[in-house]
Amino acid sequence: MHDELATPWFDSALERLDLRRGNRVLALEPRQADIAALRGCIGDDGELTVTLRDRQQAEQLAERDLQGLRVLSCEAEGGETFGTFDSVLVVAHSEPLPAERYGALLRSNLRPGGRFVVDLPGADAVPDVRAAWLELGWDEEALGRVNGPSDLELVDALRSAGLRGVESAVGAHLGRASSPGELAANFADDLGLDEDRTQELGDAIVRLRQATGPLEALMHRSQATGQR
Fold first, then answer.
1. Predicted model pTM
2. Three-state secondary structure call for residue 173
3. What is the arithmetic mean of pLDDT over 90-107?
4. To pair with 127 at 20 to 30 A between CA atoms, which of 17, 67, 81, 94?
C-alpha cells in the first residue's frame, strides 16, 4: 500500500500504546515513518525490534545501523519469541494472521504487565474496494488478503489467550487518494492484480462513486489493547 492510505490509524495505535523513554518495543511490519515515530517515543536509551517480511527492505534498514534498532527479516506466524519486551505493536496493513495467533505472539514476547496494541484490517476493511470488486463479479474470497477479523473476534481471541484488560477502540478512518485509480493501485499488490485488472477495479470505483477526482475512502480497522 502507498503511505497515503497506510497512515490514518497509526497515530491512534501509538497513542494507546503509551510508550516511555527507554522502553523495549517489538513492532511487526512497521513502515519507515512508523519506525521514526517509535524511536522518537523511546529515545536513544530505548530498544526497538522490528520484523519485516520483505528481505530487501529489512536489509536496507539494517544497513542504516540506527542506534537501538534491531531488524529481523521474517514473516511472523504467531508464537515466535523475539525477546522480552515492555510493549508490542502490531499494525498490519494487509494479510493479517488469524486473530488467535496474535494472542500466542503477545504472550511469547511481552514481559508480565507489558502492554500491547494490535491494529488490523477490519472485516470489511475498504468498502469502496469491496463494492467495486463485487460489481465486477470477482471471487469474494480473494478479498481475505485485505480483510481481517471484526472487533469482537479480535478481542475474544486475545482474551482467550489469557491477556488482561483487553479493550477495543473505534477503528473507522479516512484514507485519501488522488483518484479512484490510485485507490485501486494501493491494493493491487495485496490482491494480486496485474495492470489491466487494477485499471478495471479503478474504473468500477469510478462508476460506483460517479466521480474521477480525489476521494476519501472509509477504512475499517479492528484495534485492541491490553496487557500480559
1. 0.88
2. strand
3. 91
4. 17
- Reported as a single tens digit per residue, the pLDDT across 99-116 is 999 999 999 999 999 999
Between CA 32 and CA 12 the distance in angstroms is: 17
Pairing verdict, β 47-52 and 69-73: parallel
Query: Contact 51/28 with Cβ under 8 angstroms?
Result: yes
Per DSSP, the residues of 108-147 read: HHEEEEEEEEEEEE-TT--HHHHHHHHHTT--GGGGGGT-
Sign of CA dihedral 92, 96, 99, 100: negative
Strands 47-52 and 164-169: unpaired
C-alpha cell at 115: 502492554
Instruction: Report residue 63 as a C-alpha cell.
Output: 544497513
Residue 2 pLDDT grade (very low, low, confident, very high; cuts 50, 70, 90): very low
CB atoms near residue 209 (< 10 Å): 16
Q: Are 226 and 158 in contact (CB under 8 A)?
A: yes
List the one residue out of 114, 224, 221 whose CA is nearest residue 175.
221
Where do we find the cell 469491496?
130
User: Exposure string (b/e) for 94-109, b if CB count within 10 Å is 16 or more?
Assistant: bbbbebbbbbbbbbbb
How does pLDDT run across 126-171, given as a tens digit for each residue?
A: 999 999 999 999 999 999 999 999 999 999 999 999 999 999 987 7
**Secondary structure letter of residue 72 according to DSSP:** E
In whole angstroms, give the CA distance from residue 151 to residue 206.
30
